[in-house]
Amino acid sequence: MLIDVSLDSSSFSLPVENPHHLDINEVMRKIDDFVSLKGMTLNGLDIQGLLPRMIRGIAGCESGCPANALDLVSAGFANFDLKYIEGGILSAKAVTGEGRQLSIKMFPDF
């Protein structure tokens, strides 16, 4: 699985070896480092709560079952605009307190 984080026009990708045993603290540290290099903080954005839900939305759907992803998109999450993209990709976008566009895309391994 791959997590792609974009802030404005900058981005970085983070491979996830085993999505069922995600080290959320390590992932959050890397995301925090990335956004802080861009002069931003994640205050008010619950990325730590979002990522495990996105993983549940697409992990285990290697046979093409977007139901969990579609349920997540339908239910929504906090102040993120969620979209299911064909091929098992989930996208979450939010506008930060500084008015900047933050985007997280999660790509499955199948």
TrEMBL record:
<protein>
    <submittedName>
        <fullName>Uncharacterized protein</fullName>
    </submittedName>
</protein>
